[in-house]
Design goal:
single chain, mainly beta, 11% helix
Length: 65
Amino acid sequence: LEDKMLKVFKANKVLEKHSKEFGTLEIDKEKMVFYCKNGSIEITEMQLEGKRRMPTSDFLKGYKH
């Protein structure tokens, strides 16, 4: 993410069909979703290089996207 390593500690898999290109990372105000071929993964706890480990929702409150 922005040329920094992103460590994922917790995520939920979602087995719903989507029309996104797989490999796409979507970020909005409340969640971060990585789209795969057969569903998606919602990242719920992560750590950006140089930052502390935190819930993704907390990280996104301060993230400018």
